[in-house]
Amino acid sequence: MKKLTDLKVRFVGAGNMATSLIGGLINRGFMPSQIRASDPGGHQRQAVTERFGVQTFDDNNAHFGIPDVVVFAVKPQIMKKVTLDVANSIAETGALVISIAAGIKVKHLESWLSDDTAIVRTMPNTPALIGEGATGLYANQNVNKTQRRLTESIMDSVGISHWVDKEFKIDVVTALSGSGPAYFFLFMEYMQKTAIELGLSPEVAAKLTEQTALGSAILAQRSPDDIKVLREKVTSPKGTTEAALKSFNNNDLERTIKQAINAANDRSKQLSDDFS
Ligand SMILES: NC(=O)c1ccc[n+]([C@@H]2O[C@H](COP(=O)([O-])OP(=O)(O)OC[C@H]3O[C@@H](n4cnc5c(N)ncnc54)[C@H](OP(=O)(O)O)[C@@H]3O)[C@@H](O)[C@H]2O)c1
After folding, report:
1. Which of 58, 103, 130, 158 counts the highest number of beta carbons within 10 A?
2. Average pLDDT for residues 199-207, to the nearest whole number?
3. Are residues 27 and 71 in the same domain?
4. End of a domain among 146, 170, 194?
5. Residue 256 included in any domain
6. Would the CB of 42 count as within 6 Å of ligand 1?
7. Are residues 54 and 124 in the same domain?
8. Is any ligand 1 atom within 6 A of the Cβ of residue 249?
9. Is the same domain home to 68 and 138?
10. Is the CB of 98 under 6 A from ligand 1?
């Protein structure tokens, strides 16, 4: 296996996700010369070059070279056009393809590139923008062990990643961690709003809500106890937490959450089907 410091990575699209990944790779010790990116937007190209010293191009095929990995980081609507644009270049190099485009199935990528292309479909989430992402990964049969490890080292540069063994599970990942930040934001929004109604200043309510979410997540990560045990530990009999949890249960919060995640899972499948 090539050393990380010898790898060449090409980004197609240099927007938010690509910029985060490029930043993550540089933080991991990649040299700017190992990375190239293309994007029609002059502003994005300038930002990536100024921030990271990475060479950028307005043409997806320009100075393609022989990359080990090509990361597609464009909107799903233009994936077909963009993959067809560079299909020949990829076929010539035999590079591993990583797609971060939501909803684009591997079978479509194979039909636009070629059946024997090594392809990893990923589903990252917005905390990747600050290096705290959670990403689901699914590989086609052409991806070898080395390329799997390579994918992990790229996606783990902006958080954590986990493989799924069946492509339909990417829809579940989408419903869990892809859309998940919005669920927590909604919960935090309502907590904050209620605390303000009960008398806290907006600033204090915001800070305490944010730190409570952050502290709880870190505690859940670091503690050997599972989430249920952690919840039980905070809940003293007849105490304040118990009063709140009883209220959640009376309103069947579990059912509400199950319905919401199922709705997101169904919508993810439907969006993927629409792209076909
Ligand atoms: N942001 C997230 O947290 C997140 C989470 C999960 C999945 N994703 C997926 O990640 C992908 C990228 O998202 P993003 O948030 O990074 O979007 P973004 O910031 O809009 O980046 C996409 C970039 O692609 C460029 N582009 C447009 N046409 C192109 C072409 N023909 N060739 C090369 N580049 C082209 C765009 O330039 P212009 O702006 O000039 O058009 C833009 O800079 C999407 O497919 C999205 O579904 C994102």
Report:
1. 158
2. 98
3. yes
4. 170
5. yes
6. no
7. yes
8. no
9. yes
10. no
Candidate of 10, 11, 12, 16 to mutate for ligand 1, largest count of ligand atoms within 8 Å of Cβ: 16
Proportion of the chain above pLDDT 90, given as a percent: 95
Closest ligand 1 atom, CA of 41? 40
Is 175 part of any domain? no
pLDDT of residue 275: 75
- Averaged pLDDT for residues 210-238: 97
Q: Which domain holds residue 145?
A: 4-170
79 with 215, same domain?
Answer: no
Instruction: Give the 3-state DSSP-derived string for the chain, with helices as H, strands as E and coil as C.
Output: CCCHHHCCEEEECCCHHHHHHHHHHHHCCCCHHHEEEECCCHHHHHHHHHHHCCEEECCCCCCCCCCCEEEECCCHHHHHHHHHHHHHHHHHHCCEEEECCCCCCHHHHHHHCCCCCCEEEEECCHHHHHCCEEEEEEECCCCCHHHHHHHHHHHHHHEEEEECCCCCHHHHHHHHHHCHHHHHHHHHHHHHHHHHHCCCCHHHHHHHHHHHHHHHHHHHHHCCCCHHHHHHHHCCCCCHHHHHHHHHHHCCHHHHHHHHHHHHHHHHHHHHHHHC
Atom of ligand 1 nearest to the CA of 128: 3
**Quick one: pLDDT band at residue 1, thresholds 50, 70, 90?**
low
